[in-house]
Design brief:
Elements (H helix, E strand, L loop, with lengths): L37 H6 L14 H5 L5 H26 L14 H8 L2 H7 L1 H4 L4 E3 L20 E3 L20 E3 L19 E3 L20 E3 L20 E3 L20 E3 L20 E3 L20 E3 L20 E3 L16
Parallel strand pairs: 1-2, 2-3, 3-4, 4-5, 5-6, 6-7, 7-8, 8-9, 9-10
Helix pairs in contact: 3-4
Length: about 350
């Protein structure tokens, strides 16, 4: 079995945080109060997919100074463009054809005018939209979600990866039936309180900028898989212990200097990834994770392992590369199910040969 641990091979990259533009009230998101730089957001739109940025916006995007009217136009275009993209995806999902003009993207004003029909279309098709079980809005560089997202009350799977979202509308609270939710590759700095789907089983928030999780995170008691790779987390709230069904926890490339003790309460865990943190030691509570099968700890600052590790009687795979071990910890010989061990390439070691048992 091989495990890819090199984050450079991941196809997702964090987008730069938007520079503040406090001079324009139109840049303030009404739901969160956050400042949004629409010039930068529009610049990130993926033109390689065939999308065309209207020519009358190009000078504004390259300008060092924007008037209030210019900024309003960028804002209105960004929101309208998002609504039209979502409109097209929704129409296809309910087997409808929407006839947009061929010159739609010739002018920002044309886009804004066409998007005015989105709200009434959603209202006319509310019964069909409410029955959608799955919706994929990923890879569109969306800057916002419209309030109409709250109509999809029967959604069970929602994918919103690779966008530019940093807030959610209050209406998102209506999506209480969600079981799978993906937000990887967005711009969240705080976990959205609008996520109220307590039936969630699978949640992906990789590649954002989360610094902490709220106490309310403990409400997701049905979670089985949680991915929080490539964020800025330093700890987990005590309420995390409520996630008693969690089997997979991925925390690669965060800022943990020690293993959160609450992880020891997640006794159903089978897969735990803590690669690329700065953890110096494992607490003895690690011995409580007797269901653990895969444990990834490469690129940390470990020098030894606790004897309690031998209680992980089902552990099959353990990776410990690029730590500070000077020798193979004896406790590794007491793991009865271990099949794959990677401990070569320790820091400050001159040889690149694997350490092995003799």
């Amino acid at each position: 079995m091989s495990v890819t641990l090199d984050p450079s091979k991941n196809t997702y990259q964090k987008l730069e945080e938007s520079d503040p533009a406090p001079f324009f009230e139109s840049n303030i998101d009404s739901a969160s109060g956050k400042t949004l730089d629409f010039k930068k957001l529009i610049s990130n739109f993926d033109t390689a997919s065939g999308e065309k940025i209207p020519e009358n916006l190009l000078p504004l995007i390259s300008s060092d100074f924007l008037s209030q009217d210019d900024n309003n136009l960028l804002r209105d275009y960004s929101l309208a463009r998002d609504n039209i993209l979502i409109w097209k995806i929704l129409a296809k999902a309910i087997n409808q054809d929407i006839d947009f003009p061929g010159n739609l993207y010739d002018s920002a004003h044309t886009v804004i005018e066409q998007a005015n029909g989105f709200e009434s279309w959603c209202a006319s098709n509310q019964s069909s939209l409410q029955q959608l079980p799955k919706l994929d809005l990923g890879g569109n560089q969306l800057t916002h979600l419209p309030k109409e997202i709250g109509l999809f009350t029967q959604l069970q799977k929602l994918y919103l990866g690779i966008n530019q979202l940093s807030t959610l509308p209050k209406e998102f609270e209506n999506l209480t039936q969600l079981q799978e939710l993906e937000f990887d590759g967005n711009q969240f700095t705080e976990f959205p309180q609008e996520i109220k789907a307590t039936q969630l089983k699978w949640l992906n928030f990789n590649f954002n900028s989360l610094a902490k999780l709220p106490e309310t995170f403990g409400q997701f008691i049905q979670l089985e898989s949680l991915s929080l790779n490539f964020n800025s987390l330093t700890d987990l709230p005590d309420e995390f212990k409520n996630l008693s069904q969690l089997k997979t926890l991925l925390l690669e490339d965060n800022q943990f200097s020690q293993l959160p003790k609450v992880i020891g309460e997640l006794i159903q865990l089978q897969r735990l990834n803590l690669v690329h943190n700065t953890i110096t030691e494992l607490p003895t509570i690690i011995g409580k994770l007797t269901e653990l099968r895969e444990f990834f700890l490469d690129f940390n600052k470990l020098t030894e392992l606790p004897n309690e590790l031998k209680k992980l009687i089902r552990l099959k795979e353990l990776t410990l590369e690029y730590n500070y071990f000077s020798k193979v910890p004896n406790v590794l010989q007491e793991l009865p199910s271990l099949q794959y061990l990677l401990i070569k390439n320790q820091r400050k070691r001159k040889t690149k040969k694997s350490i092995s048992f003799d």
